[in-house]
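Sample 3 of the quickstart, ligand DOR:
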Amino acid sequence: RTVDGRGGVLLPGFVDLHTHVREPGREDTETIATGSAAAARGGYTAIFAMANTSPVADNAAITDLVWRIGQEVGLVDVHPVGAVTVGLEGRQLAEMGMMADGAAKVKLFSDDGKCVHDPVLMKRALEYSSGLGVLISQHSEDPRLTEGAVAHDGPTAARLGLAGWPRAAEESIVARDALLARDAGARVHVAHASTEGTVSLLRWAREQGIAITAEVTPHHLLLDDSRLETYDGVNRVNPPLREDRDKLALRAALAEGVIDCVATDHAPHAAQEKCCEFSQAKPGMLGLETALSVVVETMVRPGLLDWRGVARVMSERPAQIVGLDDQGRPIAVGEPGNLTVVDPDAEWTVEPDALASKSRNTPYAAMTLPGRVALTVLRGTVTAE
Ligand code: DOR
Ligand code: ZN
Ligand code: ZN
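Result:
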């Protein structure tokens, strides 16, 4: 049928390199179906489903299952991320080749921060990945520096008596993995960059010719640790919300291209896992349905990105990073395309109960945000409007 997109901004369908759908294992908080619906409403036509499911996505049977369920749901391409190791904290590399060769054609391997604390394991994973042509996402923090930590290690955490998670925990691992990727001749992708220092390291690594790419989350672009004053568990996330200067450095880096793309780290949690005392709340926040609006608020409104730039950070760069050739590009006449139409003048107030996600842990509840996805089309079929 014909769609009237008048007054809208036409963009290639968005690609999210970092989504947690909780299937298999925690279908009470998100399923591939509900996560896909949230993604379509957010303007996405492809998402990368993180490996920290239960069981862990460390073999082709699971990665193929996730891919097939996603195709049956049919709202968005759900590309499984393979775990780097057998089990999240495993010592043995997973069957990466089998996952890459399977129906899901796994392109991205990660661990969600648990297994590649060990530099020897990361070195081996990078060496192996370079032969396989897949990408490893650096997702790790120095575990000694983050033990017991719940919030950014700064004045706010100190005043509130919260255990601090230092910038150095992230930055030391980004530096380490950039150097390991250099030596292995491998590509590495930095998940959820959150500090000013990480931006400097990325810039330095690029100057050395290291094949490093990076993503930033919408929440690290918009929010900072001043949010912690209420002790509301919804604001607990890994890596933690940082300070104003980190936020501004991340925005500038995204505008400049030092950070390649926006990735949501959409992390649904049950209400009872988020309502408790801050230190007991599970880390993670929803992101799929609000990402575009947060990018408009933090990047388009201040003049840091134009709509061409939005297409770059939400769609083209993430598609290129993982080598998706059917996403992130303009469509030719007569070709069934993946696209998103945004109403640039819309303003909307986020109501958690109106979200398609099965969970409610959005940090933007009652916030009014600019710009809204009006229509999403996957291979010529409307998936959200
Ligand atoms: O806050 C987070 N939550 N960060 C992660 O890296 C994992 C995620 C989750 O799975 O809930
Ligand atoms: Zn993470
Ligand atoms: Zn994550």
